[in-house]
Here is the input.
Amino acid sequence: MGNPIITLEGIGKTFKVAKRAAGVREAAKALFYRKHTFVEALKDISFSIREGEIAGYIGPNGAGKSTTIKVMCGVLVPDEGECRVMSYTPWKSRTAYVGQIGVVFGQRSQLWWDVPVIDSFELLRDIYKVPETRYRKNLAMLTETLALSELIHVPVRQLSLGQRMRCEIAASLLHDPRILFLDEPTIGLDAASKIAVRQFIKTIHKEKGITVILTTHDMNDIEALAERILMIGKGSLLYDGSLDELRGRFGSSRTLTVDYRDCSLPVDIPGAVRHSWSPQQAVYSFDNGKISLADILARLSEQAEILDVAVDSKSVDELILQLYKEHQI
Ligand SMILES: Nc1ncnc2c1ncn2[C@@H]1O[C@H](COP(=O)(O)OP(=O)(O)OP(=O)(O)O)[C@@H](O)[C@H]1O
Here is the structure.
C-alpha cells in the first residue's frame, strides 16, 4: 500500500438551518425574525487514506457521510480542520484539483439530461483537457468493460437507473483520476446491476491502482469491496478497521449443522456447545478463537460417518448493526 493520499485532521462542519414554525401567523413572524438551529454535521473528523486503498465510509442516515465526501471533493468548505488530498486543499485550486479526482453521487447526475451520453463524455473531455489519444483509449476500455456501446448514443433521460449509473461511472474515469469518490453508487440498482458495478470497481482498482472512497448502506458493497471500514455516527468517527477485525470483535461465534449416518449417542466436544442432537443430525455453536472447525469435524468423524456440514457466520449487516448499537447510533 502506498503513502497517505488523503488526510483529514480535526474537520468540523456546522450547518445553520432556518427553523420554520407551522401556521400562517408564525410564517408571517418569520418574515421579520428568523429563528435558526445549528446542525453539527462533522465533529473533529481525522483519518488518512493510503494510495491504492478501497475504504468503505459507512454510518446511518444523517451521520455525515456525504458532508465528508463533499469536503474531500472541495464542494464544501469546513468550518475547522485541515484536509489535504494529494498536494491540494480541495476547496482551493479547484480547477487543477478536479482534474485529479473522479466523483459519482448516486443520487445526482453529472451527465447532461437531454443529450446523448457521448456528448457529455466529449464535454468532460474538453473540460478536463484530456488529450485525444488518451480519451479514445479510455473511452474504448470503459465502453467495453461497462458494456456501454448500446447506450452512449441515447439521451440520458431515456436510460434506466442501472444504465445511467454505468455511464456516470465511466464519465468519472475518462480523465484517469487518481482517486474515485463514490457516494452510494449502487442505490436503487437491481441485483444484477449492483454486481456489475461492484465487479467493475474491483477491476478498475486492480488494473489502475486507483484509490476508492465509497459510501453505501449496502453491506454487500462493503463485503465485496472494502478492505477498510470507516464508520461515522452523529458527525464523529467511531470505527476505523477491517471487516475481519470487526468479525473478530463481534462475529467469532459460528453455528455448525452436521448430518451423519446413524450415531447412537450425542458427542461432546470441549470448546463447542451442542444445541441439538438426533441420530442423524447435531447442531453446535463454537468460537473460532477457541476451537477450529477442522478440530470439531475430526472429533465427530471418530464417532460417526459425516454426510454433510453447513456453517453460518454473522452477516456483515448483523456485525454493522452491532457496531451501531455499541455506539448507540
Ligand atoms: N446543506 C445542508 N444544510 C443543512 N443541513 C445539512 C446540509 N447538508 C447536510 N445537512 C445535515 O447534516 C447532517 C449530515 O448529513 P449528511 O448528508 O452528511 O449525512 P449522510 O451520512 O450522508 O446521510 P444519508 O445516509 O442519509 O445520505 C444531517 O443532519 C443533515 O440534515
